């Protein structure tokens, strides 16, 4: 029998036309429990209430699957994933994809290792460290079909951290708030320098009339080798 959390999740996901099966709803419930358990040790999210957690964390992450076609077996990196958003909710529904969860916070990386083990998620990897350093590593550079990021930094900063990971022809997707226009304007120079092109901006609504957006950047050319610059510089001196 489904519990309250699972029922609510299935019902709210239906509102955006996403079918969640019972066994996956159980996994999302387990994921929330893991977050609660670790919250005494590490600040993962301030959202506790079931419905708010479902809408703002799970459904918001799953919107990526609604709005973007992710091919079977795709390789995806979630930069600055924190407690695993959007990477873990996506992985639970799309077991075929390879997900790399990157974060520079050690306690969060430990939480992620533990969560993927307890949820039994395969082909899910934790990369503990800074994007500025992983982005220079040939094992990861220009090797992903998609890079995604939510709530990490302004677009002109996060582009320098994410676009180096994306292969030519792949995409970087930034999950943003209601009004991304100003950030997009400020990021036009960075997109060009890093070898990308803004392909689309998608506006969407979460249950409860919460407005969000997605900025989609296509990788057109190789990113010049000097990017990303060293730790902290993308944030201190954003490309313009
Ligand atoms: N994406 C998650 C979400 O939407 O809930 C977490 C957002 S949290 C506000 C930002 C995360 O980015 C933090 O966990 C932080 O440790 C990580 N972060 C910030 N700068 C980073 C960098 N340069 N490389 C890797 N992780 C970074």
UniProtKB/TrEMBL annotation:
| GO cellular component assignments | cytosol
Report keywords, A-Z: Cytoplasm, Methyltransferase, rRNA processing, S-adenosyl-L-methionine, Transferase
- Provide the residue positions that the database annotates as binding S-adenosyl-L-methionine: 80, 85, 131-132, 150
Where in or outside the cell is it found? Cytoplasm
Regions crossing the membrane: none
One Pfam family this sequence matches: GidB
Chief localisation class: cytoplasm
Which enzyme class?
A: transferase
The EC designation for this entry is 2.1.1.-
Q: Name one GO molecular function term.
A: rRNA (guanine-N7-)-methyltransferase activity
PANTHER family hit by this protein: S-ADENOSYL-L-METHIONINE-DEPENDENT METHYLTRANSFERASES SUPERFAMILY PROTEIN
Q: What does this protein do?
A: Specifically methylates the N7 position of a guanine in 16S rRNA.
Family according to the record: Belongs to the methyltransferase superfamily. RNA methyltransferase RsmG family.
List the protein's name: Ribosomal RNA small subunit methyltransferase G
Q: What is the species listed in this Swiss-Prot or TrEMBL entry? A: Fervidicola ferrireducens
Organism placement in taxonomy: Bacteria, Bacillati, Bacillota, Clostridia, Thermosediminibacterales
